[in-house]
Design goal:
Blueprint: H1 2-6, H2 16-32, H3 43-68, H4 71-87, H5 95-101, H6 107-142, H7 146-152, H8 155-183, H9 190-217, H10 230-255, H11 260-277, H12 279-288, H13 298-301, H14 304-341, H15 343-361
Helix pairs in contact: 4-11, 4-14, 6-7, 6-8, 6-14, 8-9, 9-10, 10-11, 10-12, 11-14
């Protein structure tokens, strides 16, 4: 059968019995010699080729996985470089100029600037969080793989969750920035000031935090659970505030930024580092928030790869958002001043936003 396939279409001339045999043998030899795996319809060869391709794909995936462990750091570095290239040629806010133009800021001026910075950061973080937070929460609490979490997250979930992240961010970000800026006028040490800031922020905003978390997971909202996981959350926020109060002065002294853009990058790096320092308590919070009927023991729940993945994504979102918020603040202040003088345009824009939100909720 094999030889028939190989010699198909090769007629043998009438050479007699002996001649025909010689011709057949010669053609059989010529057909067998160049046979390759591609010509042999052999299931074993195909299986071996499939196994080899699978092994090559697994090796490529392993290399990509090792490379992706540095993903958040590379994303942060790339965003920082792009912002430096974009803003530096146009940055009119050199630190030396700011020092001469604004020699002394009072309490209300700094608090308002912090609120504006928090509001702009809230919008940026709302967009990033709407896309990433449902994924991160599934990695943190449900202990899913990235592929499993991606299968549960779709565009409708992201669009609807944005309607939760934006208003809650408009509460959380400005409140923390105002508390943090107000504590600079108390005369407390950076560490103690951050400790108090974290405790105040968590105590005030934990219901908002838990409401947002349960919305991202698609769980039922219960008033009795809005203060769930208070101890791990307050520990996380206290350590975050303490770390931020210590890391930022150290980075400013070490890097010594000379422009407004570089100072914003140092600020974003401070947030990123503070989130990583406080991340063990965030892991504790995720363990506490597990549903009672699906709660895993800690030795099964904790996996370093899941911890590194959720921490890297979450800290990068916070760092990039607040860095961009600081960079956009001068332009936001100009926009607020413009809309203050042109009330009709401001009201029209607000009306369009309200109509858009109502349309999305239907």
């Amino acid at each position: 059968m094999l030889f028939g396939c190989a010699l198909e279409g090769a007629p043998v001339r009438n050479l007699g019995s002996y001649g025909r045999n010689l011709a057949c043998e010669r053609r059989i030899g010529e057909a067998l010699q160049p046979l390759t795996r591609k010509q042999l319809p052999c299931s074993i060869c195909r299986t071996r080729a499939q196994i080899r391709r699978s092994e090559e794909g697994a090796n490529r995936f392993s290399v990509m996985t090792r490379r992706n462990s540095f993903g958040p750091v590379l994303v942060f570095a790339a965003v920082s470089w792009c912002l430096d290239a974009w803003f530096s040629p146009h940055a009119a806010r050199d630190l030396a100029l700011v020092a001469t133009e604004e020699p002394q800021d009072n309490f209300m001026t700094k608090v308002f600037a912090a609120a504006a910075q928090g509001c702009t950061a809230a919008l940026v973080a709302a967009i990033l969080s709407a896309m990433c937070e449902p994924l991160v929460n599934r990695l943190l609490v449900k202990r899913m793989t990235v592929g499993q979490a991606f299968q549960e997250v779709n565009f409708n979930l992201v669009a609807n969750f944005f309607l939760t992240t934006f208003p809650t961010n408009m509460l959380k970000f400005p409140v923390f920035e105002i508390i943090n800026r107000a504590m600079t006028f108390t005369g407390l040490s950076p560490g103690l000031s951050g400790f108090v800031s974290g405790w105040l922020f968590c105590t005030i905003m934990l219901p908002v935090t838990n409401y947002r978390f349960r919305k991202s997971m698609g769980w039922e909202i219960k008033v009795a659970l809005l203060y769930q996981a208070y101890i791990p959350t307050v520990a996380r926020d206290i350590i975050y505030g303490w770390a931020r109060g210590l890391v930022q002065p150290w980075l400013l002294d070490t890097i010594a930024p000379t422009t407004f853009t570089h100072k914003a990058m140092v600020f974003g790096l401070t947030i990123w580092a503070s989130c990583i320092i406080s991340s063990p308590c965030n892991e504790w919070r995720g363990y506490t928030l597990q549903p009672p009927d699906k709660k895993l023991p800690f030795n099964i729940y904790f996996k370093p790869i899941n911890y590194a993945r959720s921490t890297g994504i979450g800290s990068s979102i916070m760092g990039i958002a607040l860095m961009i918020g600081m960079l956009v603040t001068p332009y936001a202040e100009e926009a607020f001043a413009y809309f203050k003088e042109h009330t009709a345009i401001a009201l029209g824009l607000v009306a369009l936003i309200v109509v858009g939100i109502v349309a999305l909720t239907k």
